[in-house]
Amino acid sequence: MRELPDATKVVAEHTIELEVDTTYVGAIRLGFSSIFGDAVDRAYDSQIAPGSGTREVVSTESGDVNVEVIVGISAYVVDLIADGGRRYASRPRWSYLAPSPYVAIGVITPKEDQVKVIPSLHIGLEWEISKSFAFGVDAVARRVTRLADDLSVGSPVSTMTSITEERYEWGWSFTFSVSPEFFQFAVGKP
């Protein structure tokens, strides 16, 4: 036993350790998206074909996938309904299988010798595989370059003809994103 300053005696001491598990409602995500389908951007030019004096439309970029940097937000709806929010120290196994709604914008994407800024909107579902990493599947509305009406690859054009236009197309994407601790939204109660 030890003496306290006011001469009160301590009968017994016990150490109790408490773990307060922070509860989260959502997170801001930073990541990369691989875009497929009609939302893949294309590039076109007009060139004089060998052995011909006529300019014609040619495709200069025609991949099946585009990559862009995205910023989004995820809401832990299933965890909110079932458990008041997402917890990591005592997270139930089933919650790893439950998807979360996800909304993002494409921030930048490389295009030939330039960079497009804010080219797309992503809406989809994500699965968080650990506290800071997630992957998702999204529908994408994306601003892309297409041939102007009535033109196709091989169409004859004059030098003054504008052969492309910007428009929105739908596609789909796979995303991989990270969320540092300071980008996660905690609930006020544990």
Which keywords apply here?
4% helix; 10 strands; mainly beta; 1 helix; 190 residues
Describe this structure in words.
The chain has one helix spanning 77-83, and strands spanning 23-37, 43-48, 55-61, 66-75, 86-87, 100-111, 114-130, 133-147, 164-178, 184-186. It has one helix and ten strands. It is mainly beta and 190 residues long. 23% of the residues are buried. It has a six-stranded antiparallel beta barrel with strand order 1-4-6-7-8-9.
Low-confidence stretches: none
Number of strands: 10
Q: Structural class of the helices, strands and pairings?
A: mainly beta
Main β sheet profile: 6 strands, antiparallel, barrel
Average pLDDT for all residues: 86
Q: SSE order, as H and E?
A: EEEEHEEEEEE
**Rg measurement, Å:** 27 Å
What is the number of helices?
A: 1
How many distinct domains? 1
- State the end-to-end CA separation: 36 Å
How much of the sequence lies in strands comes to over 45%
* Shape, principal axes of CA atoms: rod-shaped
- Helix % is under 10%
Strand order of the largest sheet: 1-4-6-7-8-9
What's the short story on this structure?
The protein has one helix at 77-83; strands at residues 23-37, 43-48, 55-61, 66-75, 86-87, 100-111, 114-130, 133-147, 164-178, 184-186.
Layout of helices and strands:
Layout: E1 23-37, E2 43-48, E3 55-61, E4 66-75, H1 77-83, E5 86-87, E6 100-111, E7 114-130, E8 133-147, E9 164-178, E10 184-186
Antiparallel strand pairs: 1-4, 1-5, 1-9, 1-10, 2-3, 4-6, 6-7, 7-8, 8-9
